Amino acid sequence: MTILKKPISSEKKDKLAPLVQNDQLATAPPAEDVEGQPSDVVFLKARARRVSTATTLCLILTSLLVVSTGIFVGKILYNQYISAQMRRFTGYAQIPMPSEDVQALYLPERNRIPAPGSFNTVDDDDDDNSVARDNFDDIIRNFFREDFEIDLDGEKYEKIDVPDFRDGRSGRFIHDFNTNITGIIDITGNRCFVMPLNRGNVLPPRSLFDLIHKMWDGYYKVDTQVVRETMRVVTPPLKNLKGIGSYIAKECENRPVYKLEKYVGGVVKRSADLHVQAKFAQFSGNKITEYDIFNLEDVLEYEKNNQ
After folding, report:
1. For this UniProt entry, which segments traverse the membrane (predicted)?
2. Does residue 84 sit in helix, strand or coil?
């Protein structure tokens, strides 16, 4: 029996032959770039950066700091401008002069001067209207006006302007309850006087505020008795203004400030014989206080020699 064997070389050849024969396909030419840009552009993927915890914490703290600063500054502005205006009373009152004819007008007129036009409709007769106008003029002469600025928050000061007083000069009174000093600003004479605060005639800010409202409501009869105090001015003017308080010092800026002392001995001029610039008066809750400076001529002479 004859056995035919397949050559080993041919088996290896068959094993190395590919199972599928890939023919070379014709490829299309690359598309032309319409915009004329090179086609070999390489895109790199950006790597996302992680925000660290420390950076986030710093941003939060910065934001909180900005907000806190805004709140703090806003509170300061509110306290200095808006809130201060709300806690400070400004108004005026008509103070009756001590006269028997005027005393009867307190309750009916509710402590207020009648409106100028209220007398024009009393009667159609011209004589009656003339009498009514004369009566109104008499009432006007028996009242004087005071403008008030009162510190209601800290009750530290009162400011009283007397623009027109029958027997005195126009002036401004400032009562500083921190330093217990009263300042008189002589607006016409461009000078200031300071003296100890008399708490017997000057009501505290809150009490004066309540009194003014009672006067407006018409159920409080004001004590308008005149209390005269004779004062003596001391020359030269003060050099150190620290002791008079900031409120008075601010009003007396660029003005000489003289000290007033109560004069208790000797014979002085009558009030009617004093210089017209030597009398100042105010109503600050209890009676009308008139200050008569008997030696004002010394001040005028001093200012004349030191111009």
Report:
1. 54-78
2. helix
